[in-house]
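Hello Y.,

Per our agreement to keep a running log of every chain we model this quarter, I'm adding this entry. I've kept the format consistent with earlier entries: sequence first, then predicted structure.
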Amino acid sequence: MLRALPFLVLLVLTACGSAPRNPAVPVPDQVTVMSANFDDADPTDWPGRSPDRYPVHGIDLSRFQTSVDWKTARANGVNFAFIKATEGGDLVDPMFESHWRGAGMAGVKRGAYHFFYHCRPAAEQARWFIRHVPRERGALPPVLDMEWTPTSPTCTIRRDGATIREEARIFLAILERHYGQRPIVYTTVDFFEDTELWRLEGVEFWLRSVADHPHGVYDGTSWSFWQYTSTGLIPGIEGRVDINVFAGTKADWANWLASRAL
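Predicted structure for the entry above:
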């Protein structure tokens, strides 16, 4: 089944995960890309396209990363960071404010993400996120993190795909109205397949794929960000951390920021 077709309307990226240049958007001179000086505690022998072919790397993090020297991390290739802000309708990540402030002071492009809780209404969760995440100039688009939660102590339900997609639409629409831009959707391979998430229209994806390039794993679905490891080692960050790449060149990154950052 061809799943890339619903996303041809997305002019941000190609199906291979590379961002086309947009000549109508000026490239800001102040966007500086630092080369990645990373390691991996459990490296992958990439069978296809390696994440190393992409020049713009970044991280996502939460309360599990308690010690971050943001200036050092930035100097070693952390160009962007997606920071966990909220979960469900009553949880705030205790490290959010610290990470948000530190990333901003170090010049790291930053965005916030919400971990979706399948036992609360989407509208309630969207309002909770808005309550705790500022609408700041230069921030990356907010992110809706949707995945199964089999180890959750309070909610392990697996609703059908149509219900999941409708909840996602509600959440995305509320955040888009508030923040002035469409959120990104993060997901995993099993969740994407089980819920047929490719049926969501007008969605920009951030995809997890730690053993192969997402082009094959997600059947050609377009993506903006690729999470390729959860065992990254980066100077300035204590312990392991998730590492991601942006789907494009340095110029594509500058253009994307000019068109997508608040």
